[in-house]
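User: Structure please.
Assistant: Input sequence and predicted structure:
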Amino acid sequence: MGKRLKRLVARLRLYWLAARLYETWQLLARPHTHGALVAIWHEQRVLLVQASYRHGLGLPGGGLERRETARQAAVRELAEELGLTVSPMELEDPWQITETSARGTNTVTIFTLRAEREPRIRLDGLELVAAHWLMMQEALGRPLVSHVREYLMQRGCYNSS
C-alpha cells in the first residue's frame, strides 16, 4: 500500500476494510505480488505477529514498493511495523517461496535476523495487534500463514540455532 494511503487507512482505523478491498482486487486481477518478511530469532524463539486484517500468525514485513529490493523492503517494514532500525547487512539467509492461489501468485522472501538481546518492539495496535515470542514447535501448533509454516518446517531448526 502506498505511504499516503497507508497513513490515511491508519488514521481512520480502516485496516480491515482496506484488507477486504485488497482481497477483492486480488480475486479479480490475480496479480503476481512480491513480499519481504523477517524471521527475528532470539534464544531459539521466533517473533510472530498478528495482523488486524489476517487470520493466522505471520512474520513482520510486507510488500515491495516500486524499485525496491526485498532486502530494502524488509528493513523498511521492520521500521514501520515494529519501530526496529536494522542494517540491511544484518538480514541473513534469504529464503524464497512462490505460492499460487485464487488470489494470484505471491512470491515471498524471508530473511533471518539473529538478535543477541530481545529487541524492544512497538506495535501500532492498528495494523499489527499482537506479537508473540514462540519456540518453533510452539509456533507450529498455532494457526500460521501458509508461507510462514513452510518456512518454519524447512528452515526453522537451522535458523534458530
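Strands lie at 32-42, 45-51, 61-63, 92-101, 104-114, 128-135.
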